[in-house]
Amino acid sequence: MIIKQLMLGEDEVFCYILGCEKTREAVIIDPCGEEDRLLEIIRELQLQPAYIINTHCHPDHTCGNAIIKEATGAEIVMHQADIALLNDPQAAEYFDRHGFAPSPPADLAVDDGDILFFGNCQAEIIHTPGHSPGSICVYVDGNLFTGDSLFVGAAGRVDVPGGDFNTLISALGDKLASLPDDTIVWPGHDYGESKTSTIGREKQKNPYMGGEW
Ligand SMILES: [Zn+2]
Ligand SMILES: [Zn+2]
């Protein structure tokens, strides 16, 4: 499988391109700015995006949805709880304040355990609420794309609409800690000394997963 980690946009969010080497079908996780550059790389890799998966609905992670969908025809995928959050007037007003390009409505709502196929690869949805009610991690062949749920040595804020600390800690402990230790963690921001980690390392070092610095 092809994996590209790109830091895009003013908020320095990680966008990921995942591609099937054989069929060239692809998934874009969190298109977050610099769409021309992203499209150029997709073209260079000769990939055909089938899905845009948003790890959650925050505008810094969804601001590229409109342009990438328009250019590639890929379907926008979000967890149903974050689709609902976007429809909440108070939350929507909070998100609008940040001045990012709004996302078109999601084409596909997903929930825990759902699987999306791209070529010979499969992306499994793991619901990890807490940073937002519909935050998800995407598990693909030993790789875990964690959005703002889990960072290297840290975890996402909970002082945002729908955020909840205890929910986040349970999700990390129940859903992520049980994955194999060698699972590669690909976070949504670079808040650590490294741009990737593993579940084993986070269990040892990350206080949000019961570890110690
Ligand atoms: Zn966020
Ligand atoms: Zn973020």
Q: How is this structure best described in words?
A:
- The structure is a single chain.
- The longest helix is centred in the last third of the chain and has 12 residues, at 165-176.
- The model has no long low-confidence stretch (mean pLDDT 96).
- Helices cover 26% and strands 30% of the residues.
- It is of the alpha/beta class and 213 residues long.
- Residues 13, 58, 60-61, 148, 188-189 line the site of one zinc ion (ZN).
Could you give a short description of this structure?
The protein is α/β, with parallel strands linked by helices and 213 residues long.
Largest sheet: 6 strands, mixed
Count of DSSP H/I helices: 7
Mean pLDDT: 96
- As residue ranges, the low-confidence spans are none
C-alpha geometry: globular
CA-atom Rg in angstroms: 16 Å
Determine the strand fraction and express it as a percent band: 25-35%
Distance between the termini: 33 Å
The total beta strand count reads 14
Share of helical residues: 25-40%
- Quaternary assembly: single chain
- As laid out across the biggest beta sheet, the strand order is 1-2-3-4-5-6
Order of helices and strands: EEEHEHHEHHEEEEEEEHEEH
Bound molecules: zinc ion
Secondary-structure-based class equals alpha/beta
